[in-house]
């Protein structure tokens, strides 16, 4: 969902966490539906290493829910959180 409350179900193609940088890639369809300027979004997480470890579990939970064919590739997140 974006700030205009537009949604795109299954539009995330990959979620990557490298250190404190979270990268989310969207399908072309989702990019268009959400009005994103590019399909890739990078967020710098200004968090401690302990807080990033906590966030990992939440990200895995959120991005592991739904039909298997619509789940994004998850990189750099441990599924055992």
Q: Give the overall average pLDDT.
A: 88
Taken in chain order, the helices and strands follow as EEHEHE
Tell me the number of structural domains.
Answer: 1
Number of helices: 2
Q: Give the number of DSSP strands.
A: 4
Structural class of the helix and strand makeup? Answer: alpha+beta
The backbone outline, from C-alpha atoms, is globular
Question: Can you give keywords for this protein?
Answer:
81 residues, alpha+beta, globular
Structure commentary:
- By secondary structure, this protein is α+β, with helices and mostly antiparallel strands.
- It has one domain (12-70).
- The protein has 2 helices and 4 strands, in the order ββαβαβ.
- The chain has helices at 28-34, 49-63, and strands at 12-18, 21-26, 40-44, 73-75.
- The chain has a 4-stranded mixed beta sheet.
- It is globular.
- The two termini are 25 Å apart.
- The model has no long low-confidence stretch (mean pLDDT 88).
Outline of the structure:
With 81 residues, the protein is α+β, with helices and mostly antiparallel strands.
List the helices and strands and how they pair.
Layout: E1 12-18, E2 21-26, H1 28-34, E3 40-44, H2 49-63, E4 73-75
Parallel strand pairs: 1-4
Antiparallel strand pairs: 1-2, 2-3
